[in-house]
Amino acid sequence: MGVTRRSRDNRIGPLILIFxxxxxxxxxxxxxxxxxxxxINPALALLRDYTLVPLQNAGIATTKLWKNGVAATxxxxxxxRENDALKVELISAEAQNRDLTAEQDENVRxxxxxxxxxxxxxxxxxxxxxxxxxxxxxxxxxxNRGVKNGVSTQSVVVSPSGSLVGxxxxxxxxxxxxxxxxxxxxxxxxxxxxxxxxxxxxVCQGTHTDLLNMTYLPINADIKAGDxxxxxxxxxxxxxxxxxxxxxSVQTDQNRSIKTAVVRPDVDTNQIDDVxxxx
Length: 279
Prior knowledge:
Elements: H1 5-38, H2 42-119, E1 124-132, E2 140-143, E3 156-158, E4 164-171, E5 176-180, E6 187-193, E7 199-206, E8 212-218, E9 228-231, E10 243-253, E11 258-265, E12 274-278
Antiparallel strand pairs: 1-2, 1-12, 2-5, 3-4, 3-12, 4-5, 6-7, 6-9, 7-8, 8-11, 9-10, 10-11
Helix pairs in contact: 1-2
């Protein structure tokens, strides 16, 4: 079987490289021995400049190419694998933190519900929210408890912390609709007690926003931001003393000699998962 031209070239290449390296080594030895014996020999200097130095430079360039090219490629591949592994660990840790936070929030919510049910004389029915604000024009929600569970129209609804949410407007066998206190059609008798201990009674009206307007307060009412508003019990629907929210500002109408307190509800009506229906 004959030897192909490519096979011969493949064998000649390494031999030439080995020969060049040996030649460079020999020139280097002769060069150094010549220097020790009688100084720099012109012939050896010529051989050094045109043979040894180029070969040495080629060797240095080859070494740099290996470090910056092939070795860097392997190192880059290893770093990429390490980065991928770290990303997986980070994603896993973030997921565990989210699960832990959710469990802590659930624990707090359940403790609030338990504490409220234990410290309230009125029987409370726990319910879950099925839909929240299904219509953009109304602030309402639907719960998974109805007539079969003792829910009736005008039943008062509170949050797990005991603050006012709204009242039932319609109830079927297994569900009920609730109008939130922020709805424009919602109003509740409220009172604010100032620092002197005097209570000021007015009507808390929904505005279809995150705030309520406590209107028709006397102009001499000493009410300030930070005062608390609770139900007054007037009107017979909402029992007295249920927390409503906190005053954030007070507006004075000199022409009508009245004040309006802007109240932020304790309950975030955009985030409600569970409620209690007072029975």
